[in-house]
Amino acid sequence: MDEESTVFSQQQERVVDNDNTVRFEGRCLQIPQQTFRFSLARCRVLVCQHLDQTLTVHYGHHLLGHYDAAGQIRRIGNGIQTGSAIEPHDAAQSGDETNAGA
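User: That's the sequence. What structure does it adopt?
Assistant: Structure tokens below.
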């Protein structure tokens, strides 16, 4: 998601619920676990609805999540979400097989 797509979006500020979710137009967006903070509960975030109806949630300069129009989280590339701790879907891609015999 580049700066231009954020500029051309409908932006609304929301407060993260205690269960690490954000409500936006009847949808409940689950924010994935972040590496920089244990929980975002009660933090103010920016929800951007883009021209293609996808959603992104931002906290400062951090992209917390990228969601489809239905509010389901989208994975980027091989399963790693920018700004989150989602692991790759295949352990062989992450190099974990080298430590399996240790």
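Confidence is low (pLDDT under 50) at residues 82-100.
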